[in-house]
Amino acid sequence: MTLLLISFIAGLLTVLAPCILPLLPVIIGGSVQDSRSKFKPYVITASLGVSIVVFTLLLKFSTAFIDIPQSAWAYFSGVILVFFSLTMLFPSLWARMILKFNFEHASNECLAKASKKNSFVGDILMGAALGPVFSSCSPTYFIILATVLPQSFLVGLINLIAYALGLSIILLLIALLGQRFVGKISGLSNPDGWFKKTIGIIFLLVGLSVMTGFDKKIEAFVLDSGFFSAVGIEKKLLDTVNLE
After folding, report:
1. pTM for this predicted structure
2. I want to staple 89 with a disulfide (CB 3.0 to 4.6 A). Which of 32, 59, 200, 235 is the partner?
């Protein structure tokens, strides 16, 4: 079995790992909050996959990003998630803010629409928010970073994309299932309803846990508790590949 295929499978299997915990509420919650938007799950998962690839490469090869502490990226991602949580908990919050500061009518209309209707740009930001703080439990991912990329950037990049693609596909399937389930339940699309506020609270908790590093403690606890992960399966697959 080739490393490229294993990288893709490893991305699929990552959904079973504790390190995926911070991503699931964002992907599922962001996708189901508006079941009428069929493209939302695709935009969110695609932007997450691209974000993981981009920030992985930046943090590995760019000296401009090496000295930035991990806590700074955590705050960056956490603030974005907290912002989205507030717009869900208080749907008219952004519109009232820009009215209070007397922004021009055109800007007011545009920003309010983006906040209330969860614009395309907003979906991209939502999906990309956790890219800077993503940390994989996958041994395949670490082999790509530590062994393949230093030997050949092109080969490493292709395998990294395959891993992110596998991860994005499995998250997309989960998001689509969640969206379909929510779409069958009437009354959940109300912007002031309990469902959207519940998602807002989840986003708030995830954002705060990312900012404080509590998410990493949860991941460590789940790992120590012996929760099933796909690491063993990946190791068996990697044994079939000659990485030298």
Report:
1. 0.77
2. 200
Residue 77 DSSP one-character state: H
Return d(Cα 136, Cα 52) in angstroms, integer.
10
Does residue 243 fall inside a structural domain? no
Residue 244 lies in a domain: no
| Region class of 28: left (phi > 0), else alpha (psi between -120 and 50), else beta | alpha
The C-alpha angle 173, 178, 183, rounded to 5 degrees, equals 125
Instruction: Answer yes or no: is 183 within a domain.
Output: yes
Check: CB of residue 243 under 8 Å from CB of residue 4: no
Containing domain of residue 49, as a range?
3-238
For residue 211, tell me if it sits in a domain.
Answer: yes
Q: What is the rounded CA–CA span in Å between residue 72 and residue 79?
A: 11
Give the count of domains, the chain: 1
Give the C-alpha separation, 72 to 201, whole Å. Answer: 23
List pLDDT tens digits, range 115-158.
444 467 878 888 888 888 787 778 899 899 888 888 889 999 99
